[in-house]
């Protein structure tokens, strides 16, 4: 291992140790009842560098609910199916509103502001459902995650999916509203079922950082050499993560961390340092925008110490 690698391994371990013991942990999401049972003291961090070297600290091998982080991967799949036609149904601008906001959707006549807010992600999921049984569409998403992470053990936490389905009144409202503008093609129940289930995919930090490596390396996994998307598409997905990946906390995340990243209400954040590393962090307590409180602080420390912010050291 080179000197730099040693350095990175101590940076990751130090950050994980520090985060494990901090008293300010944010609040675990409760609107999906099953997520309220997660232990707020958990903290995991994995960084995978360009050589495929894995650096981990804390609970990096504990599976958590990836929730909205799945939207990066469903967007990748949907762009693969319909290409730029996707942008007729979903915008590409930051929303400045909470992830489950309803007001903006009315003003914009049922076309969601971007693919990462809930409405936008439901519209993206609808693209994956068209022409398939919901079960097949979901199977395709899970297999894509398994392929990317090179790990067949990745699956869905059905208790989380059922819990969200029981209480997903807002998402149902968003989907029905979009359906009234023909933005949703399939039965609302089918599209929502697939959406709830892909949000309920459970992964560890290590698996998630592995799955997202293509976005850090111009669309291809540098270890296997396998290409997932074109360099241009990877760049564009990263641009969307930077501007929209943390909802109304996206500006703050860019200001403090300076990396394209996507958060989920399970407390995970996936982030990439272009050309350098794929990163996953998990701490279940959230801030007021529904983004991981300590996850963001950990990434801020990481970019400060590595000089990885895309805006300069
Ligand atoms: N499944 C969650 C929801 O639809 C995802 C939200 C999130 O992670 N920000 O509400």
Explain this structure:
With 313 residues, the protein is α+β, with helices and mostly antiparallel strands. It folds into two domains: 3-65 and 203-306, DD-peptidase/beta-lactamase superfamily (Beta-lactamase, 3-Layer(aba) Sandwich); 68-201, DD-peptidase/beta-lactamase superfamily (Beta-lactamase). It is built from 13 helices and ten strands. β7 and β8 (268-273) form a beta hairpin. α2 (70-82) packs across α4 (118-129), α4 (118-129) packs across α8 and α6 (158-167) packs across α8. The structure holds glutamine. Glutamine (GLN) is lined by residues 67-68, 99-100, 118, 164, 171, 199, 264-265, 290.
The global form is globular
Low-confidence sequence ranges = none
> If classified by CATH, what would the architecture of the largest domain be?
3-Layer(aba) Sandwich
Bound molecules: glutamine
Write down the domain tally.
2
Summarize the structure.
The chain is of the alpha+beta class. The chain folds into 2 domains: 167 residues, DD-peptidase/beta-lactamase superfamily (Beta-lactamase); 134 residues, 3-Layer(aba) Sandwich (Beta-lactamase), CATH 3.40.710.
What is the element layout, followed by pairings?
Layout: H1 3-20, E1 27-28, E2 44-49, E3 54-58, E4 64-65, H2 70-82, H3 103-107, H4 118-129, H5 134-149, E5 155-156, H6 158-167, H7 169-179, H8 188-199, E6 201-203, H9 205-211, H10 213-216, H11 231-244, H12 250-256, E7 261-263, E8 268-273, E9 277-282, E10 285-286, H13 293-306
Antiparallel strand pairs: 1-10, 2-3, 2-9, 4-6, 5-6, 7-8, 8-9
Helix pairs in contact: 1-13, 2-4, 4-7, 4-8, 5-8, 5-9, 6-8, 7-8
């Amino acid at each position: 291992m080179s000197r730099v690698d040693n350095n990175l391994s101590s940076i990751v371990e130090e950050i994980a140790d520090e985060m494990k013991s901090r008293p300010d942990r944010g609040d675990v999401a409760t609107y999906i009842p099953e997520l309220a049972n997660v232990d707020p003291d958990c903290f995991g961090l994995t960084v995978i560098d360009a050589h495929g070297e894995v650096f981990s600290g804390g609970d990096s091998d504990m599976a958590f609910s990836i929730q909205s982080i799945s939207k990066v991967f469903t967007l990748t799949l949907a762009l693969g199916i319909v290409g730029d036609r996707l942008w007729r149904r979903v915008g590409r601008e930051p929303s400045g509103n909470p992830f489950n906001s309803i007001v903006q959707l009315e003003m914009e006549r049922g076309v969601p502001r971007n693919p990462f807010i809930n409405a936008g992600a439901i519209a993206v999921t609808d693209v994956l459902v068209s022409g398939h049984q919901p079960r097949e569409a979901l199977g395709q998403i899970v297999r894509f995650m398994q392929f990317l992470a090179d790990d067949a053990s990745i699956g869905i936490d059905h208790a989380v999916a059922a819990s969200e389905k029981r209480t997903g009144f807002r998402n149902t409202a968003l989907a029905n509203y979009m359906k009234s503008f023909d933005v949703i093609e399939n039965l609302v129940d089918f599209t929502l079922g697939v959406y709830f289930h892909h949000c309920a995919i459970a992964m560890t930090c290590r698996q998630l950082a592995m799955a997202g490596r293509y976005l850090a390396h111009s669309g291809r996994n540098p270890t296997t050499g396998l290409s997932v998307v074109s360099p241009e598409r990877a760049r564009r997905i990263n641009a969307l993560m930077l501007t929209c990946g943390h909802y109304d906390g996206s500006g703050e995340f860019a200001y403090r961390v300076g990396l394209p990243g996507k958060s989920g209400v399970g407390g995970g954040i996936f982030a990439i340092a272009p050309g350098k590393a794929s990163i996953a962090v998990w701490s279940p307590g959230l801030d007021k925008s529904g983004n991981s409180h300590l996850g963001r602080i950990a990434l801020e420390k990481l970019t400060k110490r590595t000089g990885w912010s895309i805006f300069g050291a």
